Amino acid sequence: MSEHLLEIEDLKGYYRGIFGVVRAVDGVSLTVDDGEVVGLAGESGCGKSTLAQLCSGTPNPLLHYESGKILVDGSDIYQTDPEVFRTEFKCKRMSYVPQASMDSLNPVKRIRDFVMDVVRERTGKKPSKVEVLTMAGDHFEKLGLERSVLDRYPHELSGGMKQRVVIGISTLWNPKLLIIDEPTSALDVTTQRLVIISLVVLKKAGIIKSMLFVSHDITVLGQLCDRCAVMYGGKIVEVGSMNGILDSSLHPYTSALISSVVSYDPERMGRGGLKSIPGSPPDLRDPPPGCRYHPRCEKCMDICRVKEPPLNAIENGRDVACWLY
């Protein structure tokens, strides 16, 4: 068996503010093995991006790590000294590309100056400009970007180029694990393909070993991922191989999610036509009792309304949290 490069165990992370307490990630367990690409799918508001933020080790101010473990390469990131985590973990063992990452580029700095700032921040040293820019230029070329991109300002780049620049900077140190959140959501389908190809190149070249790829578009995950986890209401409801999830989903929510996706493949066209999921996602300030999907589920039983289903192994490599199983 492969070793777990990322191991999440009973993780809880809540937003706290004047709006109350939002249980965005509420008891999640998941693994990413060495050499594996795992997708994380679900509707907006299900907790995907929150989980990715928690795994980055530096969640936004309103998001609080509550309990559980996140082990990266065998080390618990929330029990690691912050300075060691900043200099030895980030960008080296793991790297995080957040949602709307294109906005992270400084609009008044050329890409080369932004790269120098990142290297200085991560190493704590004054780097050699020639060495850094040579390394960055070589790395960018692997992603299909010309070296001249280093001399441009962000506003001179297209959305897809900016996304690949951010991915390139995030992987300069060949991190073992890349956590990437919705990298294709703001791009047209042609540019999405270029970003996916860039990630495939990084993986095949051994620049990164494993990925946790977050997306609401399960068809995008299907192009890249070995395995997929589906989230709903702050919890994992199904985990399985990517093809298994797409071809024979078990949880009613997973089936409904796939049925709501427009596809040109007749065999995957929503299993009988395009459908929407009735109702709305739960308010995670006051989630419903029992199974959190039961108010929207066509197969709801009495037990679903009162008792939360555990995430059980149904078969080898296939887990589902549903009383039907």
Could you provide a short overview of the structure?
The protein has 325 residues and is α/β, with parallel strands linked by helices. It has nine helices and twelve strands. An eight-stranded mixed beta sheet has the order 6-7-8-3-9-10-12-11, with helices on both faces.
Helix/strand layout:
Blueprint: E1 4-17, E2 20-33, E3 37-41, H1 48-56, E4 63-72, E5 75-76, H2 82-89, E6 94-97, H3 111-123, H4 129-142, H5 159-170, E7 177-181, H6 189-204, E8 210-214, H7 218-221, E9 227-232, E10 235-241, H8 242-247, H9 252-259, E11 312-315, E12 318-320
Parallel strand pairs: 3-8, 3-9, 6-7, 7-8
Antiparallel strand pairs: 1-2, 1-4, 4-5, 9-10, 10-12, 11-12
Helix pairs in contact: 3-4, 5-6
Would you give an account of this structure?
The strands form two sheets. Strands 6-7-8-3-9-10-12-11 form an eight-stranded mixed beta sheet, with helices on both faces. It has a four-stranded antiparallel beta sheet with strand order 2-1-4-5, with helices on one face. It contains nine helices and twelve strands. A hairpin with a 2-residue loop joins strand 4 (63-72) and strand 5. With 325 residues, the protein is an alpha/beta fold. It has one domain (4-320): P-loop containing nucleotide triphosphate hydrolases (Rossmann fold), CATH 3.40.50. The model has no long low-confidence stretch (mean pLDDT 89). The protein is globular, with a radius of gyration of 20 Å.
